[in-house]
Write a structure and sequence with these properties.
Blueprint lengths: L1 E5 L9 E8 L13 E7 L7 E8 L2 H11 L3 E2 L4 E7 L13 H15 L3 H19 L3 H4 L3 H10 L5 H19 L6 H37 L15
Parallel strand pairs: 1-5
Antiparallel strand pairs: 1-2, 2-3, 3-4, 4-6
The structure holds zinc ion.
The site of zinc ion has 9 residues, from loops.
């Protein structure tokens, strides 16, 4: 079996063995030592077994020769190549734009903990990010001191979030509440759901208003300065 160790974008195993099922080096006309090699491989984690495509570059002409012999025989090519890309890509933290610095760093931490497959800790971290985000939006110190459940309801009453978002926010709070106090095993699906909901809430609370404000600002600038105005479309050709 020819193998390569990669991070799996499906089961999130950090460095797991894949079986190489096809590679460009076995083509009739072998590429040069410097060429990027393409291949396909299957995750050997028994719970996963998903396929990915990859791009690798041999580390040296000598590594290239050893790699060709390995690919035509048996063994691992991991120490012989630099991995350039996989498809699908390795998952990275997914953070909405324009978050306040505190909320950004808490959400980044939650994303990194989830990608490290610590799902219980991730749920607690998303809840903390939501807690701090809702505090940022509360006008009064008294509202900041409310429990998260009451603060979410208050934000809806003040029309800062919609009723649907209020319900969603309560879902994060509910899913993440138990792991915060009990040694509960949290399935990956729950953590993914909490991550998705938290991201959507953050987009609505911070990213959308900031994006709208910036677009308005840019439109006002264009109106002020005629030279920067969007040029009118040319008159249609009448010939
Ligand atoms: Zn996998």
């Amino acid at each position: 079996m020819v193998r390569i160790a990669l991070e799996c974008p499906f089961c999130l195993e950090k460095r797991t063995n894949f079986e190489i099922v096809g590679m460009s080096t076995v083509a009739e006309e072998a590429p040069t030592p410097q060429a990027v090699q393409t291949g396909a491989a299957q995750c050997l984690n028994t719970h996963c077994r998903r396929f990915i495509a990859f791009l690798v570059r041999p580390l040296s002409p000598r590594a290239w020769e050893t790699m060709i012999n390995t690919v035509r025989g048996d063994g691992s090519i991991s120490s012989l190549v630099e991995v350039i890309e996989t498809c699908p890509e390795q998952p990275r933290p997914n953070i909405p734009r324009y978050l306040p610095p505190d909320v950004h760093s808490l959400l980044l931490e939650a994303e990194e903990v989830r990608l490290a497959k610590c799902f219980r800790a991730a749920c607690v971290a998303y809840r903390t990010a939501l807690d701090v985000a809702t505090k940022e939006l509360c006008a009064s110190g008294r509202a900041k001191r409310l429990k998260l459940i009451d603060r979410i309801d208050r934000l809806e009453k003040e029309h800062k979030i919609t009723p649907a978002l209020r319900e969603w926010a309560h879902t994060v709070r509910t899913i993440a509440n138990e792991p915060a106090h009990m040694p509960t095993v949290v399935p990956r699906e729950d953590a993914e759901e909490v991550a998705e909901i938290t991201r959507m809430i953050m987009k609505y609370l911070f990213e959308l208003p900031a994006a709208v404000a910036k677009a308005k600002e840019a439109a006002a600038e264009r109106k002020k300065d005629g030279s920067k105005a969007i040029p009118a479309l040319p008159a249609p050709d009448t010939e």
